[in-house]
Amino acid sequence: MDTKIRLAKYIAHAGICSRKQASRLIDEGVVIVNNRPANHIDHVDENDRVIVNGHAIKGPADLVYFAYHKPVGIDCKLNHHDPSSLIHHLPQLTRVYPIGRLDKDSRGLIILTNDGDFCNQLIHPDFHQPKRYLVTVNKPLDAHFCEKMAAGVPVDKQITRPCEVVKIASNQFSIVLKQGLNRQIRKMAHYCGYKVIDLYRVQISELLLDHLNLPENQFIKINKSDILG
């Protein structure tokens, strides 16, 4: 029986990145299979020689999960040459990558893992895992702000999905999103006439940052069940 699997899946199971990210690496030409540039249709197993960015990979990795409390100023792009990159703050015992990025000016909860299938489960639009944020803006919220944000506003040539928005102070609100457009909350607030001055992610699915007692720029090992409940 043939046990070979699609190359992107093999790379994800090896803990390098998600399947979607693996497909991008194949497109970029940095994946080599048996001494030739890889194709998306390649199927491989442990008997094949697979090299990603100059490093040979072999078989599935032990799956690990961490929660990380990202401070402002850390960039989630994994760039060795950028001193502000998250890559300089990751656990060193195994290769992991972030699920649910935050922009450099935002802070809060990030999940780190080498589980590509789980990454897909959390970020794929069909699964709709909620993420909750506390957001502070530059002036008091008007009477219609929460209703307008919750109903959906134009961002990047599309209307954002309906979401939960609750006012918690004169210039602060809580928002629960089930999608992850680039700088979505900042763009939504801007459309409504406000500037975000602090964006703090406090929850991903069932995992709450407050329950972890986790200082900024620190990580802690967790279980997958802590995230999905």
TrEMBL record:
EC number(s) from the headed UniProt entry: 5.4.99.-
GO molecular function: 23S rRNA pseudouridine(2604) synthase activity; RNA binding
SMART domains referenced in this protein's UniProt entry, alphabetically: S4
Any one GO BP annotation for this protein: enzyme-directed rRNA pseudouridine synthesis
PANTHER family: PSEUDOURIDINE SYNTHASE FAMILY PROTEIN-RELATED, RNA-BINDING S4 DOMAIN-CONTAINING PROTEIN
Name recorded for this polypeptide: Pseudouridine synthase
Segments passing through the bilayer: none
RNA-binding S4 domain span: 5-69
Catalysed transformations (reactions): uridine(2604) in 23S rRNA = pseudouridine(2604) in 23S rRNA; uridine(35) in tRNA(Tyr) = pseudouridine(35) in tRNA(Tyr)
Family: Belongs to the pseudouridine synthase RsuA family.
Keyword terms: Isomerase, RNA-binding
CDD domains assigned: S4 (cd00165)
Pfam families: PseudoU_synth_2, S4
Superkingdom to which the source organism belongs: Bacteria
Keyword Isomerase belongs to the record: yes
InterPro entries: PsdUridine_s_RsuA/RluB/E/F_cat, PsdUridine_synth_cat_dom_sf, PsdUridine_synth_RsuA/RluA, PsdUridine_synth_RsuA/RluB/E/F, PsdUridine_synth_RsuA/RluB_CS, RsuA_PseudoU_synthase, S4_RNA-bd, S4_RNA-bd_sf
